[in-house]
Design a protein that fits this description.
CATH class: Alpha Beta
Order of helices and strands: EHEHEHEHEHEHHEEEHEHH
Helix content: 40-55%
Oligomer: single chain
Number of helices: 10
Strand order of the largest sheet: 1-10-7-6
Radius of gyration: 18 Å
CATH architecture: Alpha-Beta Barrel
Distance between the termini: 9 Å
Number of domains: 1
Length: 277
């Protein structure tokens, strides 16, 4: 199935009511944005939010803080970066979130090969800590939209191969990284071997250096993405536009419309799949 949901849950006090509202809208996923800090702490409130997500049938994931650079020249900053990701994993285990997404780092003055080795080694170290704590968490470096930032398709896929980590593929980022000189079908081909996909999506603007900013998601972009994706895999699509809830609902409506236009059977789904949306 394809599950839609927004990037952002809101504050702790409104988290449960927001999850209930997402469920009423037909959304079945939500990525908690710890981008500016881990604002949900271990304890009763985290447990209640996790219980609510399960009750409303919403799959949670987490976006780690922006202040991460596993390729920093300052070893202290690398340790701090790893700690932020692992702190996300700790709270994810309480919330019942299975995926922790993060931006791996910047090239800086280092070459791409050296940058890759530094980031790879940090991920291996974090994987060992996750295993030690028996957390059922998949850490997911994200594909990035700026050319000076680590996170090309090739780099992320190599990390998956070398470390066994998961990944988050941002179709908007990858389109911006090459100034629009690709299609969603071409992007998906790089990930077609995987049975599970964690996707970020939105409208996006770009320039010579890649991504500039996210924008509202146009219907034609949503439809192009949905028609590029397989129909027999476990897929979560997190919308990161300025209106992530509204654009997630719009995406769900477009998927239903695609079903009707293509006839359910010919689109690779069956009637029971349609009823679940």
């Amino acid at each position: 199935m394809i599950l839609f949901g927004p990037a952002g849950l809101g504050g702790v006090k409104e988290a449960v009511s927001n999850l209930q509202e997402y469920s009423k809208l037909g959304l079945k996923a939500c990525e908690i944005a710890f981008t500016y800090g881990i604002y949900i702490k271990p304890g009763k409130e985290a447990e209640e939010i996790g219980k609510a997500a399960r009750r409303f049938g919403i799959r949670l994931s987490i976006h780690a803080p922006y202040w991460i650079n596993l390729n920093s020249e300052d070893k202290k900053k690398i340790q701090q970066s790893k700690k932020r990701i692992l702190d996300c994993c700790r709270i994810a285990s309480i919330l019942g979130a299975e995926v922790v997404v993060f931006h791996a780092g910047f090239y800086g003055k280092r070459g791409k090969e050296e940058s890759y080795e530094n980031i790879k080694n940090s991920i291996i170290e974090m994987q060992e800590e996750i295993k030690k704590n028996k957390w059922k968490i998949k850490i997911a470096p994200e594909t990035m939209g700026k050319i000076n930032v680590f996170g090309s398709v090739e780099e992320i896929l190599k990390l998956v191969e070398d470390t066994g980590c998961f990944f988050a593929v941002d179709f908007a980022h990858l389109k911006a990284r090459v100034q629009g000189k690709t299609t969603y079908k071409e992007i998906y081909k790089n990930f077609k071997e995987f049975k599970e996909l964690h996707i970020h999506f939105s409208g996006i603007e770009w320039g010579d250096k890649g991504e500039r900013n996210h924008k509202l998601t146009e219907e034609k972009e949503i439809k192009e993405l949905l028609e590029a994706l397989p129909k027999n895999k476990d897929i979560v699509i997190i919308n990161e536009s300025p209106n992530p809830v509204g654009d997630s609902v719009k995406s769900l409506d477009i998927l239903k419309r695609i079903f009707k236009e293509h006839h359910v059977a010919n689109f690779g789904w069956n009637c029971e799949d349609l009823k679940k949306l």
